[in-house]
């Protein structure tokens, strides 16, 4: 079924983890595993976690480039008064970094009372949002098979809304605290 969007599954889970292979027919064949083509590419989640308010923000975008990152940063800046300094913690993904070639991120941050902080290389687990991604995968993505990116994006957005309204949910807290190592 070309064009289906299967959420990434943790290593060793899902249909592809079964021992051996066999040919499936009928409706089971449609659910047998990820498609071999992705006609519409992938989508990217830009997300932020406000530690003080225990609030998650997220935007699903078709591209993950510096322009979209700055667009997301600008939207975060509008959530707080201009005199309040905000810190955005990022991993070392290249579009987050400020380089000699492109200072757009650093110039924007300096002009808008924003500090961009980076986790050390191979240490994204230090970023508190990573535990929120574990909960997102658990509640909204594991084992799913969406017909379109629009449907998948809708489920992600609905999870973020639910998560913000139910931040004290016992199951959510258990998953987040288990994933939090920092």
What's the Cα radius of gyration? 19 Å
Number of helices: 6
| Strand line-up of the largest beta sheet | 1-6
Q: How far is the first residue's CA from the last residue's CA?
A: 41 Å
Shape label:
globular
Report the structural category: alpha+beta
Task: Give the uncertain stretches in residue-range form.
Answer: 8-30
Mean pLDDT: 79
Strand percentage: 15-25%
What does the largest sheet look like?
2 strands, antiparallel
- Please bin the fraction of helical residues: 25-40%
Give the topology, please.
Elements lengths: L4 E2 L20 H4 L13 E7 L4 E7 L4 H12 L8 E5 L13 H8 L2 E5 L10 H13 L3 E2 L2 H17 L4 H10 L3
Parallel strand pairs: 4-5
Antiparallel strand pairs: 1-6, 2-3
Question: How would you describe this protein?
Answer:
By secondary structure, this protein is of the alpha+beta class. It has helices at 27-30, 66-77, 104-111, 129-141, 149-165, 170-179, and strands at 5-6, 44-50, 55-61, 86-90, 114-118, 145-146. It has a two-stranded antiparallel ribbon with strand order 1-6. It has a two-stranded antiparallel ribbon with strand order 2-3. Strands 4-5 form a two-stranded parallel sheet. β2 (44-50) and β3 form a beta hairpin. α4 (129-141) packs across α5. Mean pLDDT is 79; it is low at 8-30.
């Amino acid at each position: 079924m070309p064009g289906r969007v299967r959420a990434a599954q943790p290593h060793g889970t899902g249909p592809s983890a079964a021992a051996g292979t066999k040919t499936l027919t009928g409706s089971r064949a449609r659910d047998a595993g990820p498609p071999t083509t992705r006609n519409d590419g992938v989508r990217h989640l830009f997300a932020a976690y406000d530690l003080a308010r225990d609030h998650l923000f997220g935007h699903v975008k078709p591209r993950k480039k510096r322009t979209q990152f700055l667009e997301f940063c600008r939207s975060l800046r509008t959530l707080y008064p201009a005199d309040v300094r905000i810190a955005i913690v990022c991993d070392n993904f290249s579009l987050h970094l400020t380089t000699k070639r492109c200072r757009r991120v650093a110039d924007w941050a300096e002009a808008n009372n924003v500090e961009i902080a980076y986790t050390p290389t191979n240490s994204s687990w230090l970023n508190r949002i990573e535990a929120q991604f574990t909960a997102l995968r658990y509640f909204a993505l594991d084992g799913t098979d969406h017909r379109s990116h629009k449907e998948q994006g809708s489920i992600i957005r609905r999870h973020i809304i639910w998560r913000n309204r139910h931040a004290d949910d016992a199951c959510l807290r258990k998953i987040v605290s288990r994933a939090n190592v920092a």
